[in-house]
Amino acid sequence: MDKSELNQIAGLLDQASARISEFKKETYEASFRQYVEDNASVWSMLADIWSDTVSDRGQDRVQVAQCLTDRAQEQIDAVNGRAKRNAAQMNINLYMVSYLLPALIAYQRRCGGGEEEMRKLADAICNKWQERFGQRIQAADYESIQAGFKQKLCFVTTAVCCGLHKPHDCREITLMKRYRDEYMFKQADGEMLVKEYYDIAPTIVKRIAHEASPEEKYLYLWNNYISKCVTLVENQENEKCKQLYAKMMSELKEEYMVTDRHKKERGTA
Asked: pTM above 0.85?
């Protein structure tokens, strides 16, 4: 691959901030479809390269993965302050798994061919990402992400596990999702509790991400709540898990959702 082609691919990272602001249930579908269209020339270029029987596909995958990680590193290094660099890294990670990697697959699927090769390219990018940043990202397709919005992902559990470099499909996340679906929704107050959780959890996760040391918070939540909840579910102590998870959310709500003005009104400031 030549330098101009690699520059076009790396340039996709420059769109991260704008797209992440649209990664919401209400706007993601339209935003993603527009993203695929806006960058059709890049997806088409990649499709042409991979359809060339002379091309060394293994080497091409390495070059694409390298140019993306290099550009991501440049953007992170340009940010001052550890907290801001951590936030920049998380935003880029989110952009990769919610826009760039799914778009590789979506374009080929729409064109009716080459999807398997693009999945191999996505895997190569994810492997290079872990090698460079020590963080595992995982390629998903658009349909899975859109379904996730409808199913309501376990925001806090997922953030904690991924913050500790566990994959999105790790045992703990899978177990807690099953607990939500098979136990919580069947309780008299379960639907109300879950609804409140999904109203506030995304904001809590975003605010943790902007702390000076989010990984320390993730480790605290893991040691004091998440790992204990997982053990309780495994032991079929579902009500105790519910109480412990509710305690965690109450603590997080107090720390991240109650403003100074509210504290003053309650006479606690």
From this structure: no
